[in-house]
Amino acid sequence: KKMVESKLKEWKRRPDGPKIAFEILYQGKGNAYLQFFCLTILEDLVSKRWNTVEAAYASKIRELLFKFLTNVNDKVPRYVRTKAAKVYVSVGVQDWPERYAGFWNHIEHTTMQQSTRTVGTHILSIALESFGNVDKTGTTLNLLSSRRKKIKHMMKAQIPSVLKLLTILLQRSVGKNDDEMTVLTLRALLSLLSYNNIRDLPEVSLLNELFKTMQCYKNEIGVVSMRCFVEIMNNVMIPVDRLSYLLSVAKHILGLLNTFASRPELRNDAEENYVPQLLSFVSIFIKRHMSRIYCNNEFPMKQTLSLIHKFTFLQSDNASNFLACLEI
Asked: Which residue, 25, 194, 200, 302, has fewest beta-carbon neighbours within 10 Å?
């Protein structure tokens, strides 16, 4: 194994290394380990020397990566597909929109096709994180400061269409026994919310899908959904004329608290991170938004205090959850 790794590293340093890697991937040769290493070589080319690559050859690499991602079968390990997605997204960061205007359109098209929507949504999640994180320190891409600022500016215009796409994907998967697709879509939404500094309130149609998924306390769906709501409650500016939305959120929070308070045994079935995320959600809502609705006649203040009190003492067997309740 050491001899093979030594040969591969030597190959990586060769000037013609990327072209050899390209040919291997293009012809579909080698096992998963070799494919992964070829992708690593192309990743190094994209991150360090992409501006030296001829336009025609760069176009071939983009096409190769896209076809590799959309044509792979179930025998290709997930880690290989993830590496390919990261390299493809890195190309997008470098080339969109000047040299690769169709980058986001290609991803959207892939997510909307039944045969490729899983891999498409996975690419979308990686793209939203990479583009949102492009101005952070530690990125491996060799980008000028002016390019980073331009990408952040262009991404703001992209956000509404991405939110619409994610809403459609959730509507097609939530309640349809498609947990994998639901989780992938929620992860993509979380990437968008976490890395792109969104201030505008998402459409009600998206919020309604989140209300549905946050009920799934037994698995990752509920946890990721709750994390999305935490990001929304913590960052989005809710205008005065949308206070009805806050009342709707409060209603769902009370519903969840009441469910767990009236049936304590459900905590044993809940995914281990669900209750902590629920507490984060409740805490942020109270600290940032409660003052705007607690005097509203439609808001049951006494019931809220009673439920929080009851829920708090049900957490006495879990120190971190109990302390989180006390902070609320």
From this structure: 302
What is the crossing angle of helices 204-213 and 179-195, to 10°?
A: 120
Q: DSSP for 271-323, please give it.
A: -TTHHHHHHHHHHHHHHHHGGGTTT-TTS-HHHHHHHHHHHHHHTTT-HHHHH
Q: What digits encode the pLDDT tens for the residues 87-115? A: 999 999 999 999 999 999 999 999 999 98
Tokens of 118: 């899983």
Length of the chain: 328
CA R_g for the chain: 23
* H or E segment to which residue 14 belongs: none
- For residues 144 and 149, give the distance between their C-alpha atoms in angstroms, rounded to a whole number: 9
Q: Give Cα 217 distance to the centre of its chain.
A: 19
Instruction: Tell me how far apart the alpha carbons of residues 67 and 11 are, in angstroms, rounded to a whole number.
Output: 24
CA of residue 320 relative to chain centroid, distance: 27
Q: In whole angstroms, what is the distance from residue 114 CA to residue 87 CA?
A: 23
> Is the Cβ–Cβ distance between 119 and 127 less than 8 Å?
no
Mapped onto helix, strand or coil, the DSSP state of residue 96 is coil
Tens of pLDDT, residue by residue over 149-194, are 899 889 888 999 999 999 999 999 998 888 999 999 999 999 999 8
Q: How far apart are CA 193 and CA 238, in angstroms?
A: 15
Q: Nearest to residue 232, comparing CAs of 210, 215, 212? A: 210
